[in-house]
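Data card: per-record layout.
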Amino acid sequence: MRKFVVVSLLVLALFIFAKSLTVIGPWSGAEQEKFMPVLKAFEEKYGIDVEYRVYRAEDLAKILPAQFGARRAPGDVIFMWGWFIAEQGKKGHVVDLLEYISPEDFLPGVLDSVTVDGKLYGVSYTGKVKPGFWYRKSFFKKYGLKVPETWKDFVNLLEKIKKMPGIKAPIASGDGVGWPLSDVTEHFIITFGGPTVQKDLAAKNIKFESFTVRRAFEKLAFLLEKGYFSEPTEWTTILKQWWNEEYGLYFMGSWITGMVDDPEDLGVFTLPGAEGVVFASDYFFVPKYASNLEDAIKLAKFLATEGQIIQVKQGGHIATYKGVPLSAYPTVDREVARIMQNVEVVSDLDDTVGGAFQKAFWDQLKLLWVRPERLDEVLQVLDEKMGW
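The structure for this 388-residue chain is written out next.
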């Protein structure tokens, strides 16, 4: 009896004092399945159990402030929006990871949104990049088309595609609540204004009606007036139509590599001269009220480095950590990763600013797509919504 009691107490003690961590993230279904090998690798390396819980960012935005106010946290490592992490960091609720993470080991610009006053409140995990215009390699080969190297080449390519039988428009315009159009627009801003202009717009240091930003919009409006873009159509619907060669090009994020029948037939290029691309990164942070702070930091370091290598091997993700070799990527993702090595990473303008501006941005771009001659009005409204 005494032996049974002793054994029972030992088992209970092991249960109570066993190392464990809780990770909160947005992924469920197939995306969760691709993330679990990363956590499993951490468990095997460090002997620390990890529980994964799914929470939408929108729900966390309501839950976390109240939890932090009570000096509690629902998880040890939490994935959340970059701006939210920075905001909570300034309020003293987030661990400064600068002592454990070297920013120079990451793609330029990718940690900007979680860096405040010299403190690193979060880390960029892998993410989805919006690299440019996708095309079917077989389509280009069939018609003898080439990836453009100059703006003139790009316009000539669109004109060739426009004249092809069965083509509705050279470029498919995806639409949802408005974000696919904003992705295209931001690519023009970054290409013809530079990555700094995109950042200045987000920081409200420059107006949409300024010469530099207007020039980028004029390039886009020119293509719209020429009929090179289709009318906005629900993005997954027009994705299928583009794949069926009703359109020649499609500007979309790297997630489409998992949405087509033959990813090996995918090619992609940026606008000629682009020195930056938008990268939608998944950010995570360690709250100061984590139940196991030491091991939480250990997991954060793992996710930032080794974990990214494991993640990209699953497909559909692009790393932000420079230590991830191109050989780790599946073939179709490798092409996108190669583009990332030669450009600066910037954040989504509409996601960064958010609020009333975001909806106005989407609505005004829908107007621009069907009435490009109203460019002046569109730029004026956008400046008003930015508070100028």
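Known properties of this structure: The chain has two domains: 20-128+280-340, 130-278+347-385. The mean pLDDT is 92.

See the next section for split statistics.
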